[in-house]
Amino acid sequence: MNISGMDSLSITLISIIVVSFLSAFIKGRKKDRCLNKIDDFFVHIYNSKEKSIWGRVDVESNALIINFEEKDQTSNKNFILYKNEFKNMQLILRLHRYFDAIQKKRRDKLLDKVLHPGIFSKLKRNLGNVFATAKDAVAEIVNTLMATAKNMGPMKALSGQAKYVDKLKDDSLSSLTGNAFEPIWERCIGKKVIVEAFDDNMVKMEGVLVEYSQNYICLFDASIDGIEEEGAHDLLVSRAYGTIRHVVN
Fold first, then answer.
1. Residue 17: inside a domain, yes or no?
2. Is 168 among the domain residues?
3. CA angle in degrees (0–180, nearest 5) for 85-39-100
């Protein structure tokens, strides 16, 4: 019985390590699809832990580099937000008044594709949703495997390994707030929606839903009730901060 139990435990742990490694490898190289849309734009970040941050942003898979633009180009500085700090970002405003001609064209082209998708755009999104669904399924498998390993008899006796399982779970899944594929949200792409903050029902954000990821909701031509605005902007909302509640017909 003990040998059989240890064999089952070993198989479970190996499965967890393999899946966690693959998950970490993919996350380490792939940029969030919402954050990718603000790459090389001027943004204003509302952060729950730090003071507000603003500047031109370079998006990497594991960090955001905020470049503070000063008149004296010799004194430019930057601020780095690491991936483990992304959870503190509640709102990211991309301000229209800082667009140059190339950025405006890039932004408007993306919005036009969302509002008037062609056959190739639809095919690309459907294919992406297939992979997103598979990604969600892997996350569920990892959760199940880890819960099974933690509750096994041998694992209960080895508290050190049990803590290791908890750490693996945190490392592989802690940065994911929601599903990569949300069927109801797919129906709202290109439509005006209202996002409500979880902790403050006075804060409501309205805009055209352009994209979403496991961690963010991306709205174009957004407006915010309850927060002082800074002119025309697009908006990224953390899914830990708020969620879509209404579709504006």
1. yes
2. yes
3. 135
247 is a domain residue: no
The one-letter amino acid code at 198 reads: F
What is the rounded CA–CA span in Å between residue 77 and residue 49? Answer: 21
Residue 246 lies in a domain: no
* Integer angstrom CA distances of residue 34 from 37, 61, 188, 217: 5, 12, 16, 7
For residue 180, give the amino acid letter.
A
Is residue 175 within 8 A of residue 27, CB to CB? The reply is: yes
Distance CA 143, CA 172 (A): 10
Say if residue 8 is exposed, middle or buried (CB neighbours under 10 Å; 0-12, 13-18, 19+): middle
- In tens, the pLDDT along 16-31 reads 666 666 666 555 557 8
Residue 190, CA distances (Å) to 110, 157, 211, 249 in order: 11, 53, 9, 12
Q: How far apart are CA 84 and CA 127, in angstroms?
A: 29
Q: Beta strand pairing status for 63-68 and 53-59?
A: antiparallel
Within 10 angstroms of residue 246's Cβ, the number of other Cβ atoms is: 13
* Residue 239 to residue 91: CA distance in whole angstroms: 10
Distance (Å, rounded) from C-alpha 95 to C-alpha 107? 12
Output the pTM of the full model: 0.73
Domain count of the fold of the chain:
1
- Tell me which residues of the chain have a pLDDT lower than 50: 1-5, 71-72, 157-159, 172-177
Q: Which residues contact 47 (CB under 8 A, 6 or more apart)?
A: 53, 88, 89, 90
**Contact between 48 and 92 (Cβ < 8 Å):** no
Long-range contacts at 202-208 (CB < 8 A, ≥ 24 apart): 202/226, 203/227, 203/242, 205/91, 205/235, 205/237, 205/242, 206/248, 207/234, 207/235, 208/111, 208/114, 208/115
